[in-house]
Amino acid sequence: MRLKNVFGILLSLFALVIVGCGGGGDSAGGGGGGGVSGTVVSGSAVKGPVIGGTIQAFEIISSASTPRTNIPRIGTTVIATGSTAADGSFSLVLPPTLKNGGVLFKLTNGTYKDEATGTTRNVVDQAAGGLRAAFSNISGTVRRGDVLTVNVTPFTELGVQTLGAAAPTDAAIKAANARVVTTFGLTGIDILKTKPFDATTTPPAGATQAQTDYSQALAILSQRQKDSSITLDQLNALLLPDVNAGVLSVANSNAAIVAELNFANSGFDKTNLANHHPVTVSVTPATPTTAVINSTVTITATVIHNGVPAPAGVIVNFSIQSGLGGTLSPASGITTTNASGVASVTLTSATDAAAYVVTAAAGGHTGDTALITFANPNKPGAITLAANPATGVIPPNQVPITLTATVTPAGVGGTIATGTPVTFTITGGTAAASATISAVTTTNAAGVATATLNSTVAGTVTVNARAGTAPIVTSNTVSVSFISQPTLAIVKVRTTGTLVGTIIGGINAIVSAAPSTGLSIAPADITASGAGAGSTLIPNTTNVASINLALINTAGILVGEFATLNYHIAAGNFPVAGNFTVALTGAGVIDTVGANIPGIAVSVLSVTIQ
């Protein structure tokens, strides 16, 4: 019995040692710092939350411990172990004999959802040596019987790395973790005790600002890895010199700003990171703009972060918010800022009158262009209609009226394409029902189209012309007349004035027709008439525009009509009374003895068109 009792006691002690030296994350543990069950450690491994990772605890051996060589130092024996749950949380129990001094916690293995890409990654691929966190002294926690809270993140890993070859004293550990906080501006965050959460999910109820800031900072690290296509180990190598110095270099500071803006704009962020710092996105053109179809309009977005232009590398997403048929280049609309915080794309459209608004998104903020309209400068912009002659002739001597439409382009430098259809339309008039227009015609190289207008009855006709599509341009309205063709213009000339004691023996005058187009006359068409009847009349008709009349009467004549001229009118011509004038020439008006008679003038008595 005595041996059995001793054996039972030894088994019990062995069990206590097992509980104190390990146990998984689900170990019941117990709460006390100095109890036989040891101090409970609770925390999370986050990069985002690590699932299925192994957490190991190592004692940081102080200078009061033995052996005294190479101390203080981090022990190499695992004193407790646990594993991370689906939310990255873990729990383990430290040995009850460990009542003071520091503890190093190390995460190995496990997977996590990368905040910046949404993909699942293995810890070992990103951090070959795992992630660590150094806690400076647990004595206070043990004495109070509290649970020791430790979170393991990339920032706590940097805290361990910045210890370097220095002895891991309490002061050195605290200073190293403090340098991480200072370097990354993590004010108000205890990188060991503040529990971050997954920044791609809605913050948990009751989440503090420190938790949100910590979660955002971790997401920014992931975004920087994505932006640079590097592992966490490679990123830490870039950041460690800055942590040692206590301040980020310009290059790393700019890269952090770029990562912040890119994660805020990624669609993964659920923490409102867009408002972490003031950001504006100004887009041009900022005023309504018109461009020629098939040309390109450059659209720029200027990203201002915290009052200054964002660094190069900020992703800007351009998209067409309104308007169909437009094309961005690059087609994805995704580009990045230059060193002045400016990104640009081009917009092209082959659609006339298409109007677009383009939106640029960066850092979780957006800006819009003003309306951009594409126009075809070669489309008809205006049309002018003219008719020649203004009067046509009905059958049988039919003379049509030529309608001439001149189409001008809508844009400066535009050209109306040869063959552009023009439609001529009768819009009214007393002879509209009897009028006809030749078939629809098209423009020539000068933008001119013609058509002919006829009518079978006398009267007025009004006409206009149209060209183009969407919109159609309409010309001025032209009014013309149709009449029967005149064939004869009968012009009577006379003398005027007062004869005093004398009579007229001769008259020398010139009858002018201006213009004389379409008129013809022969000597036989000119006769002495009226007061001049019976006189000798000698006409010179060599120039129809200027006919010289010489009248002689030895017996003498009185003042009044003295000659009639019958002008023949060619088809298509329509002279009017105003076309004809008469004036004295040569000897003028003389008496029967050849003396000049003053005060006597000549003029047109009447013009009859028939």
- How would a textbook summarize the main sheet? 6 strands, mixed
Helix percentage: 10-25%
The overall pLDDT average reads: 91
- How much of the sequence is in beta strands? 35-45%
Helix-strand category: alpha+beta
Q: Low-confidence parts, pLDDT < 50 over ≥5 residues?
A: 1-36
Q: What's the tally of helices?
A: 8
Terminal residue distance? 160 Å
Q: Tally of extended strands?
A: 40
Outline: rod-shaped
Radius of gyration: 54 Å
Descriptive tags:
610 residues; 40% strand; disordered N terminus
Q: Would you kindly provide a written description of the structure presented here, covering whatever features stand out?
A:
This protein has 610 residues and is α+β, with helices and mostly antiparallel strands. The protein has 8 helices and 40 strands.
Outline of the structure:
By secondary structure, this protein is an alpha+beta fold.
Task: Compile the SSE list and pairings.
Blueprint: H1 2-21, E1 40-44, E2 50-51, E3 54-61, E4 73-83, E5 89-93, E6 102-108, E7 111-113, E8 120-122, H2 123-126, E9 131-135, H3 139-144, E10 148-149, H4 154-161, H5 170-183, H6 209-228, H7 232-245, H8 250-264, E11 279-284, E12 289-292, E13 296-305, E14 308-309, E15 315-322, E16 326-329, E17 334-336, E18 342-349, E19 355-362, E20 365-368, E21 372-375, E22 380-388, E23 391-393, E24 401-409, E25 421-428, E26 435-437, E27 441-442, E28 448-455, E29 459-467, E30 473-474, E31 478-483, E32 488-496, E33 504-513, E34 519-520, E35 526-528, E36 536-540, E37 546-557, E38 561-569, E39 580-590, E40 601-609
Helix pairs in contact: 4-5, 4-7, 5-7, 6-8
